[in-house]
Specification:
The structure is a single chain. The chain has 111 residues and is mainly alpha-helical. Helices cover 51% and strands 0% of the residues. It has six helices and no strands. Helix 2 packs across helix 4.
């Protein structure tokens, strides 16, 4: 089934989610153990989620998992999943590489 007109292509949502997750996690300064405790997810969950998000053929995390991750990192679930809403203060400040806009992430391109 083809995506609706204007909808992101297969894999773009997951790649955007993975990029936002990686960058906000890096900017948080948390260890994987601290993140696990704050989010209530198992210690290795973050690595598994990031790895799977790179494969557009795989399903992304459940909404319950996205909410747990967002709460653990102090960001909005809508922003984390889809780049919708305001960018959390400092979300990309510690990231390496060029700055990326939410609009670019939503389209799967960097600006």
């Amino acid at each position: 089934m083809a995506p609706a007109e204007g909808a992101p292509a297969d894999g773009e949502v997951q790649r955007g989610f993975a990029e936002r997750l990686r960058r906000v996690f890096d900017a948080s300064g948390l260890t994987h153990a601290e993140f696990a405790k704050r989010s209530g997810l198992p210690k290795g969950a973050l690595s598994v989620i990031l790895k799977r998000a790179q494969d557009p053929a795989r399903m992304g995390p459940s909404i319950v998992t996205v909410v747990a991750i967002a709460r653990g990192l102090g960001v909005s679930p809508g922003w984390l999943a889809f780049g919708e809403g305001p960018v959390p203060a400092g979300a990309f400040t510690a990231a390496k590489g060029p700055a990326t806009t939410d609009e670019g992430l939503a389209r799967g391109t960097k600006k």
